[in-house]
Amino acid sequence: ESDTRLQETQSQLQETQVQLQHAHQNFQDSQQQTQDLNRQVQEYNQTTQRKEDTIREQQEEIRCLRSQIENPHWVLERKEIEMTNETTQRKEDTIREQQEEIRCLRSQIENPHWVL
Question: How far apart are the first and last CA of the chain?
Answer without folding.
Answer: 48
